[in-house]
Write a structure and sequence with these properties.
Helices cover 33% and strands 22% of the residues. The chain contains 13 helices and 18 strands. Strand 4 (103-105) and strand 5 (108-110) form a beta hairpin.
Length: 448
């Protein structure tokens, strides 16, 4: 495929840039028209690549793009999953260029969505195009691209149930994850689930003068901070009763297998600008982010934060709390478990509300499956190094639903890198990974 990429790369850039320029931000209502526009453009690209059919399907939320090429009903079928929605670009002042005007420099594409997930989604369309035009396609291929992954895929599970027959396949191929490094190829064999909530702590019924009332009433911000501080034990464990009840402790053999992944502690710290790492005692950094659950505060606010001074005790304080869950921990159980605990530890001086925002379960896949072996062989051929199995710390909540509803395993064949800073300003995607991903995907079809 190298020759095909070289002959067509300028066209590839032009086509990819046409979807990168669309601000398909699922978190913002104002970008709703952009969701439809982006979906329609991707459906058009699928048709131009050779899909028998490709269209934009309504859901209870943002539209779903579905396309397919049925070479022979007796052949194996690959269902490709991806998402065309992206994270908000803020803070805009941190970007070195317009977040929705892609540019190429320093060997990478720079733009919101360059990696997550438009760039990786696009690799599948072009690998499919190559296989079809070169007469090498020996599978049926279906494409399902959604527009709500960045907000927890609230509509897709029901859409999948409603179109179960149409989506029937033997494996779900996904590129929406990262490798351990450009010289350390890896394949994710599992991901964590997610419970994401917003909490509100209310004290007095209005903001109060901090001179007249300071020292006499509870400050909701102080109380919230105290409550949050109590959510971890000194050894780094989550201090919510029952949180670990379903957490499976991996065997020494399994932990040794995961430990084969090379890890440079000093380079890791340097890459994120910290002097020391911390987390649950007795686990390595890769274990903390792969096989263990965690709880983090993703945002906290309250009171006056504008320019200058305003001496008030605020009426309210808020926080957003994320819990990453490991397989067997269910979001539907952990979310109410946390809510009950958080309300129980609140002092009588405040009232507490907990609102569920999004959630989903984690999953595991076997590393001895034909699909995993095919992916491993393909990546080895392209990178010259056998990929190591890894466990992803992030979440793609809907993939557990794909596993349950369609009865097929997701195969996480991702080519992003940590240096791509997805979800942050100056997101990028190395051309080396972009082209290597296309080659690896094309070879996957040869070996599966």
């Amino acid at each position: 495929m190298k020759e095909y990429i070289e002959q067509n790369k300028e066209r590839f850039f032009e086509e990819l840039f046409s979807i990168l320029r669309i601000p398909s931000i699922s978190a913002k209502a104002e970008n709703k028209p952009d969701m439809q526009r982006c979906a329609e453009r991707i459906a058009q690209l699928l048709r131009e690549a050779g899909a028998d059919e490709a269209g934009v399907y309504p859901s209870s939320g943002n539209p779903v793009v579905f396309g397919c090429k049925i070479a022979d009903p007796s052949l194996s079928t690959v269902l490709v999953y991806g998402h065309y929605d992206v994270q908000p670009a803020e803070p805009l002042e941190k970007w070195n260029s317009d977040p929705f005007e892609p540019v190429i420099h320093d060997g990478a594409i720079w733009c919101r969505g360059a990696n997550d997930d438009k760039g990786q989604l696009f690799m599948h369309i072009k690998a499919f195009e190559y296989l079809l035009r070169s007469g090498q396609l020996r599978h049926n291929v279906k494409f399902m691209f959604e527009g709500e992954e960045e907000i927890g895929s609230p509509s897709l599970p029901q859409w999948i149930r409603d179109h179960k027959e149409m989506l029937a396949a033997d494996v779900c191929l996904v590129s929406d994850t990262t490798m351990l490094g450009e010289n350390i190829p890896s394949i994710n064999c599992g991901m964590r689930g997610l419970s994401y909530l917003e909490v509100k702590v209310t004290g007095p019924d209005k903001d109060l003068h901090s001179g007249h009332y300071g020292g006499a009433v509870a400050n909701p911000i102080t109380v919230l901070c105290e409550m949050i501080a109590s959510l971890h034990t000194p050894d780094g464990k989550v201090a919510v009763p029952g949180f670990y009840d379903k957490v499976v402790n991996l065997s020494r053999k399994d932990r040794d297998l995961l430990a084969k992944a090379p890890f440079d502690r000093e380079a890791y710290k340097k890459s994120i600008g910290v002097r020391e790492l911390r987390g649950e005692k007795s686990y390595s950094t890769l274990e903390r982010t792969g096989i263990r659950p965690c709880l983090d505060v993703c945002g906290i606010w309250g009171g006056y934060t504008g320019e200058g001074a305003k001496t008030v005790i605020p009426s309210e304080a808020h926080a957003k709390i994320s819990m990453r869950l490991v397989p067997d921990q269910l979001s539907a159980e952990i979310t109410p478990l946390f809510a009950r605990h958080f309300k129980r530890i609140a002092p009588r001086s405040v009232t507490v509300e907990v609102k569920e925002c999004e959630g989903g379960d984690g999953f595991l896949i076997p590393i001895d499956s034909p699909a995993y072996k095919a992916a491993s062989r393909a990546i080895t051929e392209v990178y010259g190094i056998e990929p190591v199995p890894s466990r992803g710390g992030g979440s793609i909540a809907v993939l557990a639903e794909v596993q349950k509803i369609l009865g097929i395993d997701p195969l996480l064949m991702g080519f992003g890198l940590e240096r791509d800073t997805i979800h942050s300003p100056n997101e990028s995607y190395l051309l080396k990974q972009f082209f290597g991903g296309m080659e690896s995907i094309a070879l996957f079809y040869r070996y599966f």
